[in-house]
Amino acid sequence: MTPLRVGIAGLGRIGRGILRANHAALAEGRFDIKVVCDVMPIDQVAYLLAHDTTYGKPPFTLDFQGNDLILGDKRIRYERVDRRRRPTEDSFAALREFDLDVFIDATGTASIADLRAVIERKVARKVVCTANIAGCDMSMVYGVNHEQYDPLQHDIIASNTCTGNALAPVAYVLQKHIGIEYARVITIHPALSDQRALDGYHPTSHLGRACAASILPTSTNVAASTVLALPELEGKLDSLSYRVPTEIVSIIDITATLTRDTSRDECIELFEKYARGDLNGIVQCDYGAWGHQRASIDYLGTEFSAILQMRHLTVSHGRQLGMTLMHDNEVAYCCRVLDVLGVIDRVKAASKLKLVEPLRA
Ligand SMILES: NC(=O)c1ccc[n+]([C@@H]2O[C@H](COP(=O)([O-])OP(=O)(O)OC[C@H]3O[C@@H](n4cnc5c(N)ncnc54)[C@H](O)[C@@H]3O)[C@@H](O)[C@H]2O)c1
Fold this sequence. Notes:
alpha/beta, Dihydrodipicolinate Reductase, domain 2, 2 domains, nine-stranded mixed beta sheet, eight-stranded mixed beta sheet, about 25% helix, binds nicotinamide-adenine-dinucleotide, glyceraldehyde-3-phosphate dehydrogenase (NAD+) (phosphorylating) activity
C-alpha cells in the first residue's frame, strides 16, 4: 500500500517535531512527507532541524539543496511563503502538484477559511490542524474518539491540543466507570513561543512578561478541548494554567468530585487495566524510580499522552479525587498527530473509498 502523501505548513516546534517523529521511526519515514512550508529561508529551517536545544541532534543526517530539504536520503520540497500575503492561485496550483492526501497546518495562525480553502482548491484531500480552530469538522483525541472519524463527513480534523490529548483519556476512563460531577484542572505548562523573553508588548498583556522570571497564571483551553472529544463533560470542567520557566514537559493536576464513592485501589486498578489494554501507548502508570519521585525533565522525549503519577493519586471523603499527570507536550503531541494520520490512512484502506475524487480531475 502506498503511504499517505503529506504536506506541512509551519515548521515551528510542532511542525519540526512531526517531521522528526515521522523520520525517526523508520529510515524513510512512516508517512511520505512531500512538501513543507514556512516563512524562513531554507538554510534556517535546516539549521533549526539540525540543532534542537530541547532534544539535541536528530537521528538522521540533515542537509538542503536548492528548494529541497534532505533528511537522511529523503528529499522534501520546501516552499517559503510570505505570511503577509494571501495564498494565490499559483501557490495553490504549486501545492496541487504534490497530490497530497493530508495537509497538516501547524502554523498556529490559520483561520477556518484558510483550512477550507485547502480542501476547496483541491490542495489536499484532508486537513489536520494542530489547534482547535472553531469550525473544524472533528477534534480527534487518539484513544478517545478516533473511531468516530468518518471520511465522508470529516475533511478538516483538529488533532486537539497537547493538554487535551493528556486530559481526555483520563477523563474518559473516570467518566465511563465512575462519573465526574465536577473537576478543576490546573496545567503547569512550560513557556511557549508566543511568550516574550523579556518584558514587551503582547496582545495578552501578562504573556508579554519575561517568561523566565515568573510563574504566569493564564487561561487555558484544556477544559474546552476535552469537551470537544467528550461532549458529555460539558459544564463539568474548569481550568487554569500556570506558565512556568521550563522548556518542556507539562503537568496536569486534577481535583475532581466524582458521582459515586470509590477508592484509591479501584482507581489504580482501572487505570492499570486501561494502560495495559485500550489505552496502551497513550496512558502510562508511573510509580517513580525505586520509590523516588521523577522530575518533569525525566519525561523528556516520552511518547505517552499522559503519564499518571500514581503515588499522588488520592481519594478522600469517598468521592474527592486528586490526580497528577505529566507529558512531553511536544513529542507526545507530535506522535498523536501521526496517529491521527494513521487513522485517516486505515479508514481509507478499509473503506475502499477514495478519500475524495482525484485532486487533478
Ligand atoms: N508547542 C506546543 O507544545 C504545542 C503542542 C500542541 C499544539 N500546539 C499548537 O501547534 C501550533 C504551532 O505551535 P508551535 O509551538 O509549533 O509554534 P511556533 O511558533 O514554534 O511555530 C509556528 C511556525 O509556523 C510558521 N508560520 C506562521 N504562519 C505561517 C504561514 N502562514 N505559513 C507558513 N508558516 C507559518 C512560523 O514561522 C513558525 O515557524 C499552535 O497552534 C499551537 O497551539 C503547540
